[in-house]
UniProtKB/TrEMBL annotation:
Signal peptide per UniProt: none
Pfam families per UniProt: SAP
SMART domains: SAP (SM00513)
InterPro entries: SAP_dom, SAP_dom_sf
Domain SAP: 57-91
Lineage: Bacteria, Bacillati, Bacillota, Bacilli, Lactobacillales
Protein name, entry field: SAP domain-containing protein
């Protein structure tokens, strides 16, 4: 089976049998037409149809669950998960199947084994970024099929980074993705380093493709700055992990030694100052430094 077919098999599991693989989505993103795939999966003994009251219960509203509870003289208070558990404990599965005769798709043993052996397929789909995290890139990068989510994303980002060469805007984007993914799984060290690198790209003037002009350096509308989102995330990390501004500056200076740029709008020292002033809300000093940069451009 192709990786796209394995993905479809993964997505259909647990869905009602009324579920269809959306043609336009699959054709647009993956250039495939999966009209006959569900039948194909069943014929290959990878997928089967079952009556599954436990799945039907999950799809019911709280009010519908309470109505059924009242009909059986059962307690109706509690969270949805408690209501479902109460119904399953009190009503035999055969009777629940009469109330909820809806059929669902379920992976067979062979189907479940195939999905388990190719978990990276679902991870790539869930974190899809064209040209960076997709199946074509995974094939080019010779991505192993049996690695976990963190290793999958790291592998593909590193591959994209190696192939970006001197495309600094692309390298910035890759680093921003690295920050996002690391933050999602709470790998704070990786997230902080990636965030600091993103700030350096911005202040170096390498994250943008347009030429730097006096007008584009106007504060605070300039894009050559520490974005409010980055400031917010830094402050959150500082608060949650008891870091001082000096700790962040030290980490920032270490990143300067590891990531060398061909040219910079702001020098390393100026970047240090801007980061410190941003974290300590010294906006007047920030504005003065941008004015100096504007004057410098006028003199060129």
């Amino acid at each position: 089976m192709t990786v796209i077919e394995i993905l479809a098999l993964t997505l259909v599991a647990g869905q009602p049998t009324t579920f269809k693989l959306n043609q336009s989505f699959w054709q647009h993103r993956y250039q495939v037409a999966p009209k006959t795939w569900l039948v194909k999966f069943e014929q290959a003994n990878l997928l089967q149809q079952i009556v599954a009251p436990e799945l039907s219960l999950q799809q019911q509203t709280v009010n519908a669950l309470k109505t059924l509870l009242r009909a059986h003289n059962l307690k109706v208070s509690g969270r949805k998960v408690e209501l479902i558990s109460r119904l399953q404990a009190a009503i035999p599965a055969t009777e629940l199947a009469i109330y909820f005769p809806q059929s669902f798709y379920q992976l067979t043993t062979a189907g479940a084994h195939l999905v388990d052996q190719n978990q990276t397929v679902r991870w790539i789909h869930d974190h899809y970024v064209a040209g960076i995290i997709d199946f074509q890139t995974a094939e080019q990068a010779q991505l192993p099929a049996d690695i976990d989510l963190d290793a999958t994303l790291d592998w593909l980002l590193n591959f994209a980074q190696a192939n970006a060469q001197s495309d600094w805007a692309q390298l910035y984007y890759i680093e921003h993705l690295r920050f996002q993914f690391a933050w999602q799984v709470q790998h704070i060290g990786t997230a902080l380093n990636a965030l600091l690198d993103c700030i350096r790209f911005k202040l170096a003037g390498l994250a943008q493709t347009e030429p730097i002009t006096v007008l584009s350096l106007g504060w605070p509308t300039t894009t050559y700055k520490i974005e409010p989102f980055y400031k917010y995330m830094l402050q959150k990390i500082m608060h949650d992990y008891d870091l001082a501004a000096a700790d962040v500056i030290t980490a920032f200076q270490k990143r300067q030694q590891l990531l060398v740029f061909p040219h910079q709008l702001f020098s390393d020292l100026e970047m240090d100052q801007l980061l410190l002033w941003t974290l300590t809300e010294q906006n007047q000093r920030i504005q003065q430094l941008y004015l100096q940069k504007q004057k410098g451009l006028l003199c060129v």
